[in-house]
Amino acid sequence: MQTTQHVLFERSEMKDRHLVRKKIREHIADKAKLPILIFPEGTCINNTSVMMFKKGSFEVGGTIHPVAIKYDPRFGDAFWNSTKYSMMTYVFKVMTSWAIVCNVWYLPPMVKEEEEDAVHFANRVKTVIAARAGMSVLPWDGGLKRKKVKESFKEEQQKKYCQIV
């Protein structure tokens, strides 16, 4: 990683977030540098949905070149369910699978519209990616895999349900 131009940070550190935003803006401004590859979901899930994108990737400006990626599980499943399999079991399953097949679609470039904020831009890009890969759009992030749901989020969903009923 030292030979390339990785930008590493600790998501929980607010100082790191500001430094990363600055480094990415500088990188984008230098036309001699290669584009940055960012995975705005921050994690992987089970290949059926696209989760909430982290807005930081969409705050820095520049052109977004969306890529939709979907694994084909017919010959081997690339998804690691860490609650079901240990790392060693997962590695064994991947290494002994017939093949790991992945469909990749390069979508048209997108830029933030004048009236859009970073969250709306991220959601627009996410929707385009999900539609191309035939996946559903989820309004929450990957943290729900490892953390308990916030009470405020539960209450919000309960209120929405009550309005429907």
From TrEMBL:
InterPro entries: LPCAT1-like, Plipid/glycerol_acylTrfase. Its main location: endoplasmic reticulum. It is found in: Endoplasmic reticulum membrane. Pathway: Lipid metabolism; Glycerolipid metabolism; triacylglycerol biosynthesis; Phospholipid metabolism; CDP-diacylglycerol biosynthesis; CDP-diacylglycerol from sn-glycerol 3-phosphate: step 1/3. Belongs to the 1-acyl-sn-glycerol-3-phosphate acyltransferase family. Residues 1-70 form the Phospholipid/glycerol acyltransferase domain. It holds the Pfam family Acyltransferase. GO terms for cellular component: endoplasmic reticulum membrane. GO terms for biological process: phospholipid biosynthetic process; triglyceride biosynthetic process. Keywords: Acyltransferase, Endoplasmic reticulum, Lipid biosynthesis, Lipid metabolism, Membrane, Phospholipid biosynthesis, Phospholipid metabolism, Transferase, Transmembrane, Transmembrane helix. One of its GO terms (molecular function) is glycerol-3-phosphate O-acyltransferase activity. It is a multi-pass membrane protein. PANTHER family: GLYCEROL-3-PHOSPHATE ACYLTRANSFERASE 3, PHOSPHOLIPID ACYLTRANSFERASE. This is GPAT3 acyltransferase.
